[in-house]
């Protein structure tokens, strides 16, 4: 759907709401969520930079307990049972050397959480964060063309590393147990709404749905580009990549469980940072041959994946700014965005940074996107009308949209998303980061961030309404006009505009009912709009190559 919206209008995630200006705030709300995610995402890239350079050590630094370690630290040389007996503690209360290295040497994490405020940023992580933003700026400085070239490397190199890691991992003792654990279904989990909420949230992040980046990239396509093929390729590739990463990860974790003499469940301590910076490094340090090489490849892979994702999200922000202020030079906008992103990222490289990350991830990422995607679906298929939208797709691609897509877009997906989201808020438990429970102040901040992003919808509805108030005969007519598509909701090419006007004039949809409640755009098209040109027409020749 977002691919079609961007390609049809050749507009970014804000201008695309010429479809129904009343919902232009959805685009701005998505921009806030995208910016929140980018700021912490690049900080994670900084962590991969730190580990990448640490991997060149003669002995991997996380493979042994250091001066910073506690008495309960165990490394691959230690006899864990003997240490547990001496300390008089259960085996599961011991901490591995990679875990202590990550928390105490790298993060210098504050066990008190946010209770005592924020400490200054760690200088080594600050340098790694700066390096990450510099690389990101260089990738984005020349716009989609430069980031598109970089994508050849950032998209292909991780597959090479994943296959290397899979082959190596599959030959290790215990790998089969880990793989069986990965593919063994637990059907009872399908009855838990938390699982569906997590699955939907992961899909949003994995496919970048609801963040605006899909709309932004598709806006550079040629108008007749086969967007159905793109959607199929993206979905299949994403699923394949997830499975490949899953097999690789659990082969490694199965080997770790075999080394420790425990079940696979016991080494799967969690996803995210725990998996990338504790479990994986633990196994890599135990490789008999050149563990440094595998560590370098692994963290370089994570960094390139981060560059690919962060450039897409940051590029969306840059596109929004350049669309609103066409006179601004793109490289200057990119530079300012990078500097501001770096300054905001300093919060994540403090001893309390991981707590801030979890807080922003919960409220600024998934929470906001979940709400705005529901608004997006309702605006396109209930207000503009699923029949109108499918008519636009038919003009663009020369093929009709099947009843399956109409049903999913207009009813099934928005209803299920609303049910899952409401239920999860009813049964929500206090937000935690590890064993730390966020206080009232932290939750209040997160809620304010989410509310602020969602308030973009009524705020910009009011703005659009005021623009039309003086031109309408009464307030109600101004409200209706705010929901109607503008003259700019059409192909940007003048020839295609005229063809589109003829096409929709021949098409006479029913104007009543929830399927098509708003009159078609033909009623608002004018000669002036047909003669106007968007700044994006300057890249039409480039669009065809992209």
UniProtKB/TrEMBL annotation:
| GO CC, any one term | plasma membrane
Q: Name one GO molecular function term.
A: metal ion binding
Per UniProt, the keywords (alphabetical) are: Amino-acid transport, Disulfide bond, Glycoprotein, Ion transport, Membrane, Metal-binding, Sodium, Sodium transport, Symport, Transmembrane, Transmembrane helix, Transport
Q: Where in the cell is it found?
A: Membrane
What residues form the membrane-spanning segments?
Answer: 32-53, 123-140, 152-176, 196-220, 232-253, 293-319, 331-350, 362-384, 404-424, 444-466
Pfam families found in the cross-reference section: SNF
* Gene Ontology biological process terms from the UniProt entry: amino acid import across plasma membrane
In the bilayer, the protein is annotated as: Multi-pass membrane protein
Q: Which SUPFAM superfamilies match?
A: SNF-like
Q: Does the keyword Methyltransferase apply?
A: no
Residues binding Na(+): 206, 305, 309
Give the highest taxon in the source lineage: Eukaryota
Q: Glycoprotein: present as a keyword of the record?
A: yes
| Cysteines joined through disulfide linkages | 65-73
Q: What does this protein do?
A: Unusual broad substrate spectrum amino acid:sodium cotransporter that promotes absorption of the D isomers of essential amino acids. Neutral amino acids are the preferred substrates, especially methionine and phenylalanine.
Q: Which family does it belong to?
A: Belongs to the sodium:neurotransmitter symporter (SNF) (TC 2.A.22) family.
Name this protein carries in UniProt: Sodium-dependent nutrient amino acid transporter 1
**Species the sequence originates in:** Halocaridina rubra
Taxonomy of origin reads: Eukaryota, Metazoa, Ecdysozoa, Arthropoda, Crustacea
């Amino acid at each position: 759907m977002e691919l079609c919206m961007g390609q049809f209008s050749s507009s970014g995630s804000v201008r695309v709401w010429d479809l129904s200006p009343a919902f232009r705030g959805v685009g701005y709300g998505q921009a806030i969520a995208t910016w929140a995610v980018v700021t912490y995402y690049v900080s994670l890239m900084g962590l991969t930079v730190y580990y990448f350079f640490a991997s060149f050590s003669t002995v991997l630094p996380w493979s042994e307990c250091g001066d910073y370690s506690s008495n309960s630290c165990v490394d691959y040389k230690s006899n864990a049972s003997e240490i547990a007996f001496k300390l008089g503690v259960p085996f599961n209360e011991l901490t591995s050397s990679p875990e202590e290295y990550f928390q105490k040497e790298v993060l210098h994490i504050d066990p008190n959480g946010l209770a005592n405020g924020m400490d200054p940023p760690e200088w080594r992580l600050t340098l790694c964060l700066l390096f990450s933003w510099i690389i990101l700026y260089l990738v984005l400085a020349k716009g989609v063309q430069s980031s598109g070239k970089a994508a050849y490397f950032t998209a292909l190199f991780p597959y090479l590393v994943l296959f290397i890691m899979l082959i190596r991992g599959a030959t290790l003792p215990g790998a089969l147990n880990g793989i069986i654990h990965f593919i063994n279904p637990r059907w009872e989990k399908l009855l838990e709404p938390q699982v569906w909420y997590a699955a939907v949230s992961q899909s949003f992040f994995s496919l970048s749905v609801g963040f605006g980046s899909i709309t932004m990239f598709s806006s550079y396509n040629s108008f007749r580009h086969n967007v159905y093929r793109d959607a199929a390729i993206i979905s299949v590739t994403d699923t394949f990549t997830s499975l490949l990463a899953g097999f690789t990860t659990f082969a490694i974790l199965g080997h770790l469980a075999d080394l420790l003499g425990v079940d696979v469940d016991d080494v799967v301590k969690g996803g995210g940072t725990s998996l990338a910076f504790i479990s994986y490094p633990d196994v890599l340090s135990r490789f008999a041959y050149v563990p440094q090489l595998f560590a370098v490849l692994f963290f370089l892979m994570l960094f390139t994946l981060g560059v690919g994702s962060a450039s897409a999200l940051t590029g969306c922000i840059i596109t929004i700014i350049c669309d609103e202020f066409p006179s601004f030079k793109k490289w200057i906008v990119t530079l300012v965005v990078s500097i501001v992103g770096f300054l905001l990222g300093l919060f994540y490289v403090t001893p309390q940074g991981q707590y801030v990350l979890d807080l922003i991830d919960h409220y600024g990422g998934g929470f906001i996107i979940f709400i705005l995607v529901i608004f997006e679906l309702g605006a396109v298929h209930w207000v503009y009308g699923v029949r109108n939208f499918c008519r636009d797709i038919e003009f663009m691609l020369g093929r009709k949209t099947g009843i399956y897509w109409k049903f999913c877009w207009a009813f099934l997906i928005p209803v299920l998303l609303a049910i899952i989201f409401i239920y999860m808020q009813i049964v929500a438990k206090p937000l935690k980061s590890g064993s730390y429970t966020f206080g009232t102040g932290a939750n209040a901040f997160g809620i304010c961030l989410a509310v602020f992003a969602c308030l973009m919808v009524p705020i910009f509805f009011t703005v659009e309404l005021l623009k039309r108030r003086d031109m309408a005969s009464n307030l109600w007519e101004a409200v209706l006009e705010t929901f109607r598509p503008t003259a700019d909701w059409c192909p940007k090419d003048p020839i295609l505009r005229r063809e589109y006007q003829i096409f929709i004039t021949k098409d006479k949809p029913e104007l009543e009912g929830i399927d098509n409640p708003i009159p078609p755009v033909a009623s608002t098209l004018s000669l002036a709009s047909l003669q106007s040109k968007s700044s994006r027409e300057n890249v039409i020749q480039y669009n065809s190559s992209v």
